[in-house]
């Protein structure tokens, strides 16, 4: 692992935050959201702000931009100095002048962060319209110029495109172009690669590094991904509950973390080394998929579109009590496969057998009694539970639909809550009263309540912090051992796949490119695409949990 | 784009056909002899026979329908039973006042309501927001004729600023048209201002919470640009839907206002026709308003795709 070793001795800070405190608006007695944060970033330096969700990373960045939601949060003390000017003293107009000229921000989700009804070229140009007075021709030239700098292909066409016509990576390049066109001294990047595929993430990270080197920009990089930290940070700040826990140059922090919290955070990072596969006893297959194919958008009335093969020739088998992971980038067809198996969408052709029962061709009504044998846990626990229903009602809905007695179902729901590690009183509470990890436990309990043979987990831990991720993965493992469920685990995260899967299937563009045991796929990949995926995983040479190089153990 | 519009226009054909069949059957399938209904109680058998022949009532139904549709295409909507003049010319005389009033009303409503809604959303949960919302509730709850009479009492009788009633065509004297039309239009506009302002506020509130609004602010653009350039266009689809439906409702629903302000529009034509059982006129009015609804819906659908490039069917 090559860490950054740049020295910033004697370089004056671009941004210094001194004793910054942010509290809830109109509620001075409440515990502050940020409690006396101080740090500095110097020209050319990349400072990574890490911590779990709710630790105050984003609040810090929004405070610096002057973009805190006024009705909810306000700065109650401290200074934010950008080259000796305290941003907190500026009025609205002066602060607007600073944005994009002296400090800019790139956001997490490039799909929603761009205005969907405005051409991207105009959106970049708007920065110039707002801040500088030059001719229209010159403006356009500068926009095309920065678009070249962020390595967008065919800039004339992309200039006229709308966001939905571009890929995720291209949209994030547009965001970066917008942020850097006026060469600000400070760039704040708030989880800029979290929503991107690993290979795209790698490109965006190197693009930021390249532009930073070229313009000497100071970068405040917010992330929860320790792999990314290892790749790009000069300095790391660890945050917890609105306070700074530890600050150190990257290598020092990863090798010698001083604080317990930092150590715990690093130990929760799942390892890329696959866990030892479980023994394969010859047991009956719980789910058998053969030649599954899904085609979208064949021609209809007056419409003639090229049909898309979202999935083709997908075949696999999961024995009881084992876990198969499907990995691949967005658009590879992994979720399509999950939905076909669930019969949330109808496969175009192929066979899906749960036990011995063919469900791919069953009609809606005939399928209903069999639905309980195969259940799903979705990615986002904030949206997959009905916010107006108590947890108990969500848990018993499925069993009641299958004709179970209400009293028995409620008793069972209480047992399930205990099984997934939630208190019994959770049954009368509402989803918003729980954290993300707890909600995902509820979602799992809901799926397990149906006593399924197969559990499909579609990116079930991707929205969670690593420490919570670890707990949920352990829970799935426990449930599997107790109940003997077969799990189909869909993920884009190779580290997660390495931790939970016995076998791994790699998909690309709707096809299976590799299918073998987890140890073989991740340890000794055959297909170039699998190799590229592993290659792109950030921080892959570092063993975070043991604070050392990955090969140090064997060496 | 062109292909999309073409497909949408094609899809209008079955709707209009169904309406036409319904309107045609309305008279033919009413219980009793249509000729007797038309001729009235005092008609002689000879008169009845004459009416039957002139309406083609002795032909089989499909033939009658074909003849009727043929006449429709020639712009012939039949002859009024009361005034004995052609229905198309009666409508042509009366439609312009109605359309002029409706257009002015919608323009007034949009000019008032959209800024109100935007402001209310921007200053969410402040007195501005509460004022707009209170006005909106009031606008919904007070009946149109009450508002109309209050306006007449205040502006025409007490202040003597504007005429009490009447209508002048804008082509004749535009200033006079405005002075006479402004009260009925404001009266009609009240409810649409309430409706559109509410819809604008709700739609804007949603959009203002979105990431790209934060991006726009992070670029340093002014609040005006954030609101009207970035947010409003994204909030426009539901607002436009309300405006379109509002316009269609206006044309067919101006009966009360036209009576209060004595405007010779199609609202009064319809009322008179219904009271006098003037079937050909009623038929023509149903056909006309349905066609109008369909056309306005088409217009709304097409404008969606102009506002939002992601909408492609």
Automatic annotation (TrEMBL), chain A:
Membrane topology listed for this record: Peripheral membrane protein
GO cellular component terms listed in the entry, alphabetical order: plasma membrane
Subcellular localization: Cell inner membrane
Residue ranges occupied by any ABC transporter domain in the UniProt entry: 15-266, 287-534
Signal peptide: none
Keywords annotated in UniProt: ATP-binding, Cell membrane, Membrane, Nucleotide-binding, Transport
CDD domains per record: ABC_NikE_OppD_transporters
Main location: membrane
Short name of any one Pfam family annotated for the protein: oligo_HPY
Family: Belongs to the ABC transporter superfamily.
Protein name per Swiss-Prot or TrEMBL: Probable ABC transporter, ATP-binding protein
Organism whose genome encodes this protein: Roseibium aggregatum (strain ATCC 25650 / DSM 13394 / JCM 20685 / NBRC 16684 / NCIMB 2208 / IAM 12614 / B1)
Automatic annotation (TrEMBL), chain B:
Protein name, per record: Probable ABC transporter, permease protein
Gene3D superfamilies linked to this entry: MetI-like (1.10.3720.10)
UniProt KW Transferase keyword: no
Matches recorded under SUPFAM superfamilies: MetI-like (SSF161098)
PANTHER family given in the database record: DIPEPTIDE TRANSPORT SYSTEM PERMEASE PROTEIN DPPB-RELATED, PEPTIDE ABC TRANSPORTER PERMEASE PROTEIN
Native organism: Roseibium aggregatum (strain ATCC 25650 / DSM 13394 / JCM 20685 / NBRC 16684 / NCIMB 2208 / IAM 12614 / B1) (Stappia aggregata)
ABC transmembrane type-1 domain segment(s): 95-300
Pfam families associated with the record: BPD_transp_1, BPD_transp_1_N
GO annotation (BP), single: transmembrane transport
Compartment(s) where it occurs, according to its Swiss-Prot or TrEMBL record: Cell membrane
Cell membrane in keyword set: yes
Main location per the UniProt record: membrane
Gene Ontology CC annotation, any one: plasma membrane
UniProtKB keywords: Cell membrane, Membrane, Transmembrane, Transmembrane helix, Transport
Transmembrane segment boundaries: 9-27, 99-122, 134-157, 177-197, 237-261, 281-307
Record-stated family: Belongs to the binding-protein-dependent transport system permease family.
Membrane topology category: Multi-pass membrane protein
């Amino acid at each position: 692992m090559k860490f950054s070793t740049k020295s910033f001795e004697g370089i004056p800070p671009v941004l210094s935050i001194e004793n910054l405190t942010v509290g809830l608006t109109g509620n001075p007695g409440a515990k502050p959201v940020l409690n006396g944060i101080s740090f500095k970033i110097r020209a050319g330096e990349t400072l990574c702000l890490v911590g779990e969700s709710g630790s105050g990373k984003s609040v810090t960045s929004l405070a610096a931009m002057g973009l805190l939601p006024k009705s909810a949060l306000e700065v109650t003390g401290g200074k934010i100095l950008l080259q000796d000017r305290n941003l907190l003293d500026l009025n609205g107009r002066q602060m607007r002048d600073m944005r994009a000229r002296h400090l800019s921000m790139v956001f997490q989700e490039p799909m929603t962060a761009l205005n969907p009804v405005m051409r991207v070229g105009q959106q970049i140009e708007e920065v110039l319209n707002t801040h500088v007075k030059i001719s229209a021709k010159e403006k356009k030239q500068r926009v095309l110029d920065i678009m070249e700098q962020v390595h967008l292909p065919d800039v004339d066409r992309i200039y006229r495109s709308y966001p939905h016509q571009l890929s995720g990576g291209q949209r994030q390049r547009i965001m970066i172009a917008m942020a850097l066109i006026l060469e600000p001294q400070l760039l704040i990047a708030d989880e800029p690669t979290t929503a991107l595929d690993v290979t795209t993430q790698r490109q965006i990270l190197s693009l930021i590094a390249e532009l930073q080197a070229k313009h000497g920009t100071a970068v405040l990089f917010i992330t929860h991904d320790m792999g990314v930290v290892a790749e790009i940070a000069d300095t790391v700040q660890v945050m917890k509950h609105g306070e700074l826990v530890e600050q150190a140059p990257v290598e020092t922090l990863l090798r010698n973390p001083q604080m317990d919290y930092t150590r715990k955070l690093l130990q929760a990072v799942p390892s890329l080394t696959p866990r030892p596969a479980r023994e394969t006893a010859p047991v009956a297959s719980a789910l058998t998929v053969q030649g599954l194919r899904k085609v979208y958008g064949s021609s209809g009335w007056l419409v003639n579109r090229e049909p898309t093969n979202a999935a083709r020739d997908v075949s696999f088998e999961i024995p009881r009590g084992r876990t198969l992971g499907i990995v691949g980038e967005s658009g590879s067809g992994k979720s399509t496969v999950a939905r076909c198996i669930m019969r949330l969408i109808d496969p175009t052709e192929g066979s899906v057998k749960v036990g011995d029962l063919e469900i791919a061709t069953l009609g809606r009504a005939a399928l209903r009694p069999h639905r309980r044998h195969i259940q799903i846990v979705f990615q986002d626990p904030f949206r997959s539970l009905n916010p107006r229903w108590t947890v108990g009602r969500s848990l018993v809905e499925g069993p009641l639909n299958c004709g179970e007695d209400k009293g028995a179902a409620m008793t069972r729901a209480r047992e399930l809550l205990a099984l997934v590690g939630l208190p019994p009183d959770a049954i009368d509470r509402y989803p918003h009263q729980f954290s993300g990890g707890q909600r995902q436990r509820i979602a799992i309990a809901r799926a397990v309540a149906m006593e399924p043979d197969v559990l499909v987990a579609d990116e079930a831990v991707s929205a969670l912090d690593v420490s919570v991720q670890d707990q949920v993965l352990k829970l799935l493992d426990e449930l599997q051992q107790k109940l003997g469920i077969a799990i189909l685990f869909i993920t884009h995260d190779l580290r997660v796949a390495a931790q939970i899967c016995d076998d791994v299937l790699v998909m690309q563009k709707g096809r299976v490119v590799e299918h073998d045991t987890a140890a073989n796929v991740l340890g000794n990949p055959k297909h170039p695409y699998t190799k590229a995926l592993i290659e792109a995983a950030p921080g892959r040479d570092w063993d975070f949990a043991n604070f050392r190089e990955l090969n140090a153990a064997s060496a | 784009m062109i292909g999309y519009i073409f497909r949408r226009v094609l899809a209008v054909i079955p709707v209009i056909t169904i309406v036409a069949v319904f309107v045609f059957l309305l008279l033919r399938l009413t219980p009793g002899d249509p000729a007797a209904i038309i001729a009235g109680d005092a008609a002689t058998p000879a008169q009845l026979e004459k009416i039957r022949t002139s309406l083609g009532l002795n032909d089989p139904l499909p033939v009658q329908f074909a003849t009727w549709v043929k006449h429709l295409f020639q712009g012939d909507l039949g002859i009024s039973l009361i005034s004995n003049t052609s229905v198309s010319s009666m409508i042509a005389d009366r439609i312009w006042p109605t359309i002029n009033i409706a257009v002015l009303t919608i323009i007034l409503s949009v000019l008032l309501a959209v800024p109100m809604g935007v402001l209310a959303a921007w200053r969410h949960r402040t007195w501005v927001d509460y004022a707009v919302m209170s006005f909106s509730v009031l606008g919904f709850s007070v009946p149109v004729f009450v508002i109309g009479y209050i306006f007449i009492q205040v502006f025409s009788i007490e202040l003597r600023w504007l005429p009490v009633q009447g209508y002048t065509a804008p082509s004749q004297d535009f200033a006079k048209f405005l002075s006479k039309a402004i009260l009925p239009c404001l009266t009609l506009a009240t409810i649409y201002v309430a409706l559109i302002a509410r819809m604008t506020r709700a739609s804007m509130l949603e959009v203002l919470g979105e990431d790209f609004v934060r991006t726009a602010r992070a670029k340093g653009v002014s609040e005006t640009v954030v609101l009207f350039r970035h947010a409003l266009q994204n909030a426009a689809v539901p607002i436009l839907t309300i405006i379109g439906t509002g316009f269609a409702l206006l044309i067919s629903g101006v009966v009360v206002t036209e009576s209060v302000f004595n405007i010779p529009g199609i609202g009064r034509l319809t009322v008179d026709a219904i009271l006098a059982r003037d079937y050909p006129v009623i038929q023509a009015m149903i056909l006309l308003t349905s066609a109008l609804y369909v056309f306005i819906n088409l217009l709304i659908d097409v404008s969606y795709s102009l506002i939002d490039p992601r909408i492609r069917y």
